Amino acid sequence: MNDWFGTLFVLSLRHVLGQRRVLLVLLLALVPIAAAGIFFGWGRRDPADWTANVLGNGVVISAVVPLATLLLGTAVFGSEIEDGTLVYLLSKPLPRWGIVLAKALAAFFPIALLLSLSSLLSGLLATWEEPLIRVTLALAASAMVAAAGYVAVFVALSLVTSRAMIVGLAYAFIWEGAVTSFLSGAQYLSVRQYALGVFDALAGLPDRTFDEALPSAPLLAAAVIAGALLLATRRLERWEVKGGE
Amino acid sequence: MSGASQPTIVARNVSRWFGNVVAVNDVSFEAYPGITGLLGPNGAGKTTLLHMLAGFLRPSAGTITILGEPVWQNPRLYRRIGIVPERESVYPFLTGWEFVRASAALFGVEDVEERSQRAIQLVGMEQAARRPIGTYSKGMRQRIKVAAALVHDPEVLILDEPFNGTDPRQRLQLMELFRSMAAAGRTIVVSSHILEEVERLADRVLVIYAGRLAAAGEFRALRRMMTDRPHTFTVRSSDDRALAAALILQPFVRGVEFADGCLEVRTTEFGAFTRALPRLARERRIRLTEVRPADETLESVFAYLVNR
Question: What is the DSSP code (8-state) at residue B287?
Answer without folding.
Answer: P
